[in-house]
Amino acid sequence: MQSSIQNEDIDLPDDTELWRRIPSDNYKFDDNLGRLRPKSNAFTDSKNKSPMSVTVVKLYLGGGKTKEEYIAKFMKNDWGLASITVGLIKELNLEIEFDPNDDDPGHALVKGKKTGKIKRRMAKESKWEVTPESKNMPD
C-alpha cells in the first residue's frame, strides 16, 4: 500500500536524505557553483509520465540493505548518486509517495509539477553520494 508523507502516521524529518541516480548524460560542471552537479533534467518524471523515482535512504538501509548493495545493483560505472532532502521536496510543494519493492524497500515517487525552476533548484542543492567520472570536469 502506498502512502504520502502528508499522512499523520509517517514521520520523515526534513533532513531525511533521498537518493537519485544520475546517468552519465545528466551531469555537468557548473562554473557558478565551481563543482560538478546533476543537470536539471535529472530531476524530472520519466518519459512514460511516471513520477520521479527516489530512494528514502533511512528506509533502504533500515530494510537491511547497504549503500554498497545499492551501488552494485542499481548503478552503472559512469553514473553518479546524488542526494536531496525531504525538506527541499516539501519546500517545493512536491509530495513523496512510498512505493517499496523487494529490491528497494526505500523506493518512493516524487509527485507534483516539476517546473524548470524546481528542477534547477533540486540540481543545485543536490549533494553527491557517489561522484561520477566525468569528461565535463575542468582542466
How would you portray this structure in words?
The strands form two sheets. Strands 6-7-4-1-5-8 form a six-stranded antiparallel beta sheet. It has a two-stranded antiparallel sheet with strand order 2-3. It has four helices and eight strands, in the order ββββααβαββαβ. With about 140 residues, it is α+β, with helices and mostly antiparallel strands. The chain has helices at about 55-60, 65-75, 85-90, 115-125, and strands at about 15-20, 25-30, 35-40, 50-55, 80-85, 95-100, 105-110, 125-130. The model is unreliable at about 1-10 and about 135-139 (pLDDT under 50).
Short description:
With 139 residues, this protein is of the alpha+beta class. It is built from 4 helices and 8 strands. A 6-stranded antiparallel beta sheet has the order 6-7-4-1-5-8. A two-stranded antiparallel sheet has the order 2-3.
SSE blueprint and pairings:
Layout: E1 17-22, E2 27-30, E3 35-38, E4 52-56, H1 57-62, H2 67-74, E5 80-85, H3 86-91, E6 95-98, E7 107-111, H4 116-125, E8 127-130
Antiparallel strand pairs: 1-4, 1-5, 2-3, 4-7, 5-8, 6-7
The biggest beta sheet is recorded as: 6 strands, antiparallel
Give the helix tally: 4
Low-confidence stretches are 1-9, 134-139
Query: What percentage of residues falls in helices of 4 or more residues?
Result: 10-25%
Instruction: State the order of secondary-structure elements, H for helix, E for strand.
Output: EEEEHHEHEEHE
Euclidean distance between termini CA atoms: 49 Å
Radius of gyration: 15 Å
Mean pLDDT, as a whole number? 87
**How many β-strand stretches?**
8
